[in-house]
C-alpha cells in the first residue's frame, strides 16, 4: 500500500523502526512484568529529540503535531513506537499532546519555564483532565495572587515522570467556563498516587491518581483562556493519537501472527489466507483514513475532526478483530507469556477501553444527517 509519505517522513519512520527493533521492543516484556515506567525508552526518545516533537521549530522543537509544519510526523512516531511498546508510545503521545496545547496557548515566558525540564532532563508532561466517576469535580477558588484548587484526577499518565503537570477541565468560582493550569509537582497538597496503577495491560505507562488538597496555583501558572480547551475542541484533537497507537499495535500483532503461521508452514491454507486478507484490508483502510484526516486538518479542520473520528472508530474495530483473529488463527499457545501477542492482547484490551468509540461513530453519523455534534463529547 502506498501511504504517500514524503521522503523525510519515510526517513523518520526508518529511524523509529530501527530504535524499536534494537531497543524498545526487546525491553517491553521487562517493563510489562515489573510495572516500571519505560525509563530507558524515554531516555532514547529524549536523545532523538522526539520529546520536543510538537513544539514549534522557532522554539527549538521539531514542528510536528496538528499545528506544525509537518503534522503527520507526530502520529507516525506514535504509531511506530506502539509497534514496539504501546505504553512507551502512550507516554510519548500524552506528553506531546500536552506540549502542543502549551505551544498553542501559552505565552513565550510560560513556555520556556514549562519546557525547560523536558529540554534539560527529559521530564514528561501529563495531561490530567479525566476524573473518577462519582468524585466531586475539581474546583478552583479565587484567592489573592492565584487559586486554591481541590479535587481528584485519574489516569494522569506521565505524572510520576513530570516536573510540571497540565491540569485541565477545572471549574472555578471566578469564571463561567473551566480553566486549566500547570502545577509543579512539589506543590503542597498535591499527592501523586502511583500505587493505584495495577491494570491488566498498559502497565508501563504509569498513570497515577492525583489528589489535590487546597493546592495553591499562582496566577502566572494559568494556561490559556477559560473555556479554551473545549472551545477549541482539544478533547477531540487529542484523540487522533490514540488511533495511531491502536494501529501500530494492531500491525505488531498482525505481523507476529503472520510470521508464526508462516513458520508453521500454514501459509498455503486458504482459510488462513482469507483471515489475513481481512485483517490487512482493515489495517490499511484505518491507516489511510487516519493519515488523510491529519492531512486535511490545516485545510479544513472541521471535516478533519469528523474524519479523525471515523478513523478512531474503524481503528478500534480493526484492533478488536486483529486481537481475536490473531489468537484464533494461531491457537491458544500463541497467548502464552513467552510470545509478545499475549502482552499486546492485554495492553490493547485495556487501551481500547479509553472509550468514546460509540461516540466517535455517533459524531460521524450526526454529521451525515447535518445534525449538530460535539467532538469533545465523553459520555
Ligand atoms: C491507558 C489509558 C491511559 C489514559 N491516560 C489518560 C490521561 O493521560 N489523561 C486523562 O485525562 N485520561 C486518561 N485516560 C482516562 C480516560 O480518559 C477515561 O477517563 C477513562 O478511561 C474512563 O474510565 P472509567 O472506568 O472511569 O469509565 P467511565 O467514564 O466510568 O465509563 C464507563 C463506560 O461507559 C462507556 N460509555 C460512556 N458513555 C457512553 C455512551 N454514550 N455510549 C456508549 N458507551 C458509553 C465508556 O466507554 C466506558 O466503557 C486514560 C485511559 C487509559 C485506558
Indicate the CATH topology of the largest domain.
Answer: Butyryl-CoA Dehydrogenase, subunit A, domain 3
What does the overall shape look like?
globular
Proportion of helical residues: 40-55%
Give every kind of bound small molecule, once each.
Answer: flavin-adenine dinucleotide
Judged by helices, strands and strand pairing, the structural class is alpha+beta
CATH architecture label of the largest domain: Up-down Bundle
SSE string, helix = H, strand = E? HHHHHEEEEEEEEHHHHHHH
- Low-confidence sequence ranges: none
Count of β-strands: 8
Number of helical segments with 4 or more residues: 12
The CATH C-level name of the largest domain is Mainly Alpha
Whole-number total of structural domains: 3
The CATH superfamily of the largest domain is identified as Butyryl-CoA Dehydrogenase, subunit A, domain 3
User: What is the typical, i.e. mean, pLDDT?
Assistant: 97
**CA-atom Rg in angstroms:** 21 Å
Amino acid at each position: 500500500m502506498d501511504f504517500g509519505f514524503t521522503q523525510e517522513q519515510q526517513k523518520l519512520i526508518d529511524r523509529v523502526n530501527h530504535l524499536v527493533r534494537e531497543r524498545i521492543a526487546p525491553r517491553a516484556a521487562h517493563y510489562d512484568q515489573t510495572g516500571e515506567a519505560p525509563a530507558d525508552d524515554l531516555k532514547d526518545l529524549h536523545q532523538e529529540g522526539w520529546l520536543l516533537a510538537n513544539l514549534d521549530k522557532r522554539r527549538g522543537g521539531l514542528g510536528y503535531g496538528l499545528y506544525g509544519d509537518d503534522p503527520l510526523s507526530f502520529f507516525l512516531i506514535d504509531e511506530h513506537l506502539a509497534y514496539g511498546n504501546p505504553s512507551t508510545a502512550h507516554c510519548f503521545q500524552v506528553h506531546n499532546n500536552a506540549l502542543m496545547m502549551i505551544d498553542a496557548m501559552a505565552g513565550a515566558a510560560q513556555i520556556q519555564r514549562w519546557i525547560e525540564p523536558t529540554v534539560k532532563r527529559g521530564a514528561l508532561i501529563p495531561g490530567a483532565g479525566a476524573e473518577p466517576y462519582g468524585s466531586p469535580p475539581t474546583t478552583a477558588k479565587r484567592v489573592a495572587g492565584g487559586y486554591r484548587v481541590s479535587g481528584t484526577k485519574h489516569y494522569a499518565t506521565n505524572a510520576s515522570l513530570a516536573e510540571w503537570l497540565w491540569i485541565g477541565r477545572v471549574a472555578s468560582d471566578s469564571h463561567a467556563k473551566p480553566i486549566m493550569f500547570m502545577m509543579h509537582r512539589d506543590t503542597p497538597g498535591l499527592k501523586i498516587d502511583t500505587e493505584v496503577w495495577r491494570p491488566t495491560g498498559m502497565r508501563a505507562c504509569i498513570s497515577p491518581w492525583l489528589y489535590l488538597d487546597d493546592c495553591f496555583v499562582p496566577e502566572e501558572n494559568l494556561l490559556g483562556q477559560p473555556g479554551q480547551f473545549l472551545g477549541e475542541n482539544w478533547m477531540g484533537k487529542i484523540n487522533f493519537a490514540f488511533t495511531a497507537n491502536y494501529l501500530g499495535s494492531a500491525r505488531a500483532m498482525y505481523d507476529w501472527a503472520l510470521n508464526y503461521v508462516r513458520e508453521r508452514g500454514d501459509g498455503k491454507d486458504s482459510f488462513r489466507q482469507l483471515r489475513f486478507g481481512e485483517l490487512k484490508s482493515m489495517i490499511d483502510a484505518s491507516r489511510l483514513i487516519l493519515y488523510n484526516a491529519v492531512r486535511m486538518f490545516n485545510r479544513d479542520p472541521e471535516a478533519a475532526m469528523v474524519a479523525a473520528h471515523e478513523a478512531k472508530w474503524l481503528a478500534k474495530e480493526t484492533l478488536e478483530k486483529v486481537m481475536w483473529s490473531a489468537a484464533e488463527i494461531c491457537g491458544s499457545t500463541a497467548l502464552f507469556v513467552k510470545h509478545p501477542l499475549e502482552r499486546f492482547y492485554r495492553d490493547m484490551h485495556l487501551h481500547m477501553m479509553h472509550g468514546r468509540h460509540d461516540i466517535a461513530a455517533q459524531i460521524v453519523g450526526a454529521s451525515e444527517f447535518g445534525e449538530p455534534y460535539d467532538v469533545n463529547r465523553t459520555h
